[in-house]
Amino acid sequence: MALVKMTILGYSVRMEDRLPTPPSSSSMPVLHHRAEFDTILKQYKMNDAALQVLQHTPFVLLVAASGAGRNTIIERLIDTGNYYYVVSDTTRPPRVRDGKPIEQNGVQYFFRDENDVLADLKAGKFLEAAVIHEQQVSGISVREIEAAQQSHKVAITDIEVQGSAYITKVKPDTLNIFILPPSFEEWLARIRKRSHLPDAEIKNRIEAAITELTVALESDRFIFVINDDLDEAITTIDEIARQGKHHLSAEERAHTLAAELRDQAVAFIG
């Protein structure tokens, strides 16, 4: 996964591309209306109908450092039947390997025509959107929030801390949860076991996590949850999201751990 620099409606964000880096190709996506996208994203505003849908739909945003287990948690929550995973739109085509698509429409992304995305942005039908890799526009359509509302489920998606700031600004009751590994040693072990990455890339991910943790610790919108025991972490998040139950002692312990992880990560980077 490659670190990318992007702008979400005026917010500069350092985030991880959640899909494998695409293979080199002479036909990489090109934004034909880049100037128009830049202009509308700088002054973007949802329409009133979209804002109403958002305000009446429970929304959970999961933030995590690489290796904290966020994707597994989301999958397990979806399996309960109580959550709707919000899939983003993108203007790029599905990635291809050996001549065959390796992504499915509506699973990794909704793959949409550039003109259609631009039209929906002009009509205020996105929650957020961004120019990514200088070659595509991706974002959350309010269409997905409507689908969550109609299914009577809690909308949930993964996001970065700065992106969550914008969404929380337009929907103050958004639930922001930051998933933590149980210790710095276990965190490193998970990254190395899962990814088999070179040391330089591991350091890149730790550096990105330092930024994420620092922003989250300086904000009062995040609830920190430790993913030590997977079932326990899932139960905790579900109780917070659907029942409003808060385990204050656990949250205080997790907040303290977040600060410790940040400090240990800084020392690790040197």
Task: Write a brief structural summary.
With 270 residues, the protein is of the alpha/beta class.
Provide structural commentary:
The protein is of the alpha/beta class and 270 residues long. The protein has a single domain, classed as 3-Layer(aba) Sandwich (Rossmann fold), CATH 3.40.50. It has helices spanning 34-42, 48-55, 70-79, 114-122, 142-150, 161-170, 184-195, 199-217, 230-243, 248-269; strands spanning 3-8, 11-16, 59-64, 83-85, 89-90, 96-97, 100-101, 110-111, 126-132, 136-141, 154-158, 175-180, 222-226. Strand 6 and strand 7 form a beta hairpin. The longest helix has 22 residues, at 248-269.
Give a quick set of tags describing it.
270 residues; alpha/beta; Rossmann fold; six-stranded mixed beta sheet; five-stranded parallel beta sheet; 10 helices; globular
